TrEMBL record:
Localization per Swiss-Prot or TrEMBL: Cytoplasm
Keyword Coiled coil: yes
Transmembrane parts of this sequence: none
Name of the protein in its database record: UvrABC system protein C
Source species: Psychroflexus sediminis
Domain spans labelled UVR: 207-242
Family annotation (Pfam families): GIY-YIG (PF01541), UvrC_RNaseH (PF22920), UvrC_RNaseH_dom (PF08459)
One function term, GO molecular function aspect: excinuclease ABC activity
Record's keyword terms, sorted: Coiled coil, Cytoplasm, DNA damage, DNA excision, DNA repair, Excision nuclease, SOS response
Subunit structure and binding partners: Interacts with UvrB in an incision complex.
Length: 600
């Protein structure tokens, strides 16, 4: 076999931590990755058959490899993140930002204003957030305004302009909401004490503010200024109430970042909670679109790096659901119980809710996009040649061979199409023979579709393992449809899917939407079949007594039961009541049968 330039490049890579970059024939960057061992990681792309279609496509396009060696895996992770942002390669994870979330801003100016904003401007101002909703940050702003008297005007309050008397106090001063720094009624030192107290509140540290207010209250009370002391007491109550709502974990848990991840086949959702003095002071979730087969560990490591960089977090410890690489200066903890475990679980719940909201938004804004994505995923997962827009699933129902029936449920675009459901009475099989019953119903179903020139499904599923699957295949073969309609069998264990001629089952990831749809199909077929079977069994059991009367058949029995609702009421009915339902001759037969029995 001839050695290519690519083979030589792979063989000569160093066995060191670093970042590798794949390029196509036009020198366009395809993918950026990091590795603890560059040679081992890059070789893995070329030394095995890939299950993922996307990886296979990418590997075929690679014509050149570049690499950068770094000191540690953490350095590689940081460099990888920066290169992905800069080049946005086609096959890399895509970070979806949520810049529309609100922030609380302490403006970089003399006598700083504090306000809500959605724009982060790098002018030296302090930004806290982003907050999960406007209501959250408005509640915080309401608390701050209730406790401290801050200016809201946008004047340039330089000392020179104040001394020149350029400004006059406004209505806010007269309402008691501002102390009038514009006319030098409040000095800068006093104002900045308020700003420092606000910083502590936003960070979750309410202890210092509560201490200051209590000292103020006692001083005012000693001076017999009781009305002012009462106002300060109300502020203390407000702050304590806010603290009780904010404290979600043990107050001793401080200066910690919490990360968790929830993922599906297409996306990862990384949630970040920042804790200070037992209170959550920041919550943020990012959506990461998978391009290859990234693991949860890879996604979470990239998410942690991105979020800590973005918010300039210096927390020395992080809590995560499983072990990750976060750098030599960060302590990584995986809590197993108690308050620490509870906060990781809370983070996971936030990630799940974010994912659910994304799906709901997608369905509202672009319902077809969700369906198209699901169909494409099912096609890939089930190794089909076309998207399974129309799926039919069969299930047999019988109890010890009595009243054997079968059900066929139909899903279109991943959703039940109940008007297309069909029920079958087993006609040609004696006794409990699931294999023969399956062959009969599959044959009858598709013979009819062919006769009526109706569209055939893109996928047929039979409930059962290899035996039921073989029966379904035989039925399709008799109709000349084998190979035209894909057919698979679901074994008792739901994650096992059998294909014709394949000795080994296919196992799907339990988290995939494909498996969830197949489970839904199977459950719906089982429910529909069982309901039909029970109804038939009940009718047979009730109808048998009436049908034992000579001259009374199934049709007459059903008419009587529909009208009188029970056998007891039929027995008690007068001759005239019976005649009104089934006519004179049959009414006489039933009336005579029951009343003769009563007399004897």
């Amino acid at each position: 076999m001839e050695t290519t330039d690519l083979d030589i490049q792979v063989k000569t890579l160093p066995e060191s931590p670093g970042v590798y970059q794949y390029y196509d024939k036009d020198d366009r960057i395809l993918y950026v990755g990091k590795a603890k061992n560059l040679k081992k990681r890059v070789s893995s792309y070329f030394n095995k058959q890939h299950d993922s279609h996307r990886i296979g496509v990418m590997v075929k396009k690679i014509k050149n490899i570049k690499h950068i060696v770094v000191d540690s895996e953490m350095d590689a992770l940081l460099l990888e993140n920066n290169l992905i942002k800069k080049h946005q390669p086609r096959f890399n994870i895509m970070l979806r930002d949520d810049k529309t979330y609100p922030w609380l801003c302490i403006k970089n100016e003399r006598f700083p204003r504090v306000f809500l904003t959605r724009q982060v401007i790098k002018d030296g101002s302090e930004y806290y957030g982003p907050y999960p909703s406007v209501r959250t940050v408005k509640t915080l702003m309401g608390l701050i305004k209730g406790l401290y008297q801050l200016r809201t005007c946008n004047y340039d309050l330089s000392q020179a302009k104040i001394d020149q008397g350029k400004y006059k106090v406004c209505l806010e001063y007269h309402l008691g909401n501002c102390k009038g720094p514009c006319e030098d009624y409040q000095n800068e030192e006093d104002y900045l004490k308020q700003i420092e107290a606000i910083r502590n509140i936003v960070k979750g540290n309410l202890k210092d503010s509560l201490k200051d207010f209590r000292e103020q209250m006692h001083d005012l009370a000693e001076e017999m200024r009781y009305e002012e002391a009462e106002k300060v007491k109300r502020k203390i109550n407000t702050l304590e109430k806010y603290q009780s709502k904010s404290t979600v974990v043990n107050p001793r848990i401080s200066n910690v970042d919490v990360f968790s991840i929830v993922s599906d086949e297409g996306y990862g959702y990384v949630n970040f909670l920042q804790l200070s003095h037992g209170a959550i002071i920041r919550s943020h979730t990012i959506e990461m679109k998978k391009k290859l087969d990234e693991t949860d560990k890879e996604l979470l490591e990239l998410g942690i790096t991105e979020i800590r960089q973005r918010f300039e977090s210096k927390s020395p410890e992080i809590y995560v659901p499983f072990e990750v690489e976060a750098g030599e200066y960060v302590k990584v903890s995986v809590p197993k119980l108690g308050d620490k475990k509870a906060i990781v679980d809370l983070s996971t719940r936030n990630a799940k809710y974010f994912r659910m909201e994304r799906f709901k938004q997608m369905k509202i804004v672009d319902p077809d996009r969700h369906t198209n994505r699901l169909m494409a995923q099912m096609k890939e997962d089930l190794r089909l040649s076309e998207e399974p827009r129309h799926i039919e699933c069969f299930d047999n129902s019988n109890i010890q061979g009595s009243n054997p029936v079968a059900a066929c449920v139909v899903f279109k675009n991943g959703k039940p199409s109940k008007k297309d459901y069909r029920k079958f009475n087993i006609k040609t099989v004696e006794g409990p023979d699931d294999f023969a019953s399956m062959e009969e119903v599959v044959y009858r179903r598709y013979r009819r579709l062919l006769e009526e020139d109706e569209p055939l499904p893109h996928l047929v599923i039979v409930d059962g393992g290899k035996g039921q699957l073989s029966s379904g295949v035989k039925a399709l073969e008799r109709l000349g449809l084998r190979g035209r309609i894909p057919i698979i069998g679901i074994a008792k264990r739901l994650e096992e899917l059998f294909y014709p001629g394949d000795q080994y089952p296919l196992y799907l990831d339990k988290k995939t939407e494909t498996l969830k749809i197949i489970q839904q199909l199977r459950n719906e077929a089982h429910r529909f079949g069982i309901t039909f079977h029970r109804n038939k069994r009940s009718k047979n059991a009730i109808g048998t007594e009436l049908e034992e009367i000579t001259g009374i058949g199934e049709k007459t029995s059903i008419e009587l039961l529909q009208h009188f609702r029970s056998i007891t009421k039929v027995k008690k009915a007068s001759l005239k009541e019976l005649e009104d339902v089934i006519g004179v001759s049959k009414a006489n037969l039933i009336y005579t049968h029951y009343h003769t029995q009563d007399e004897t």
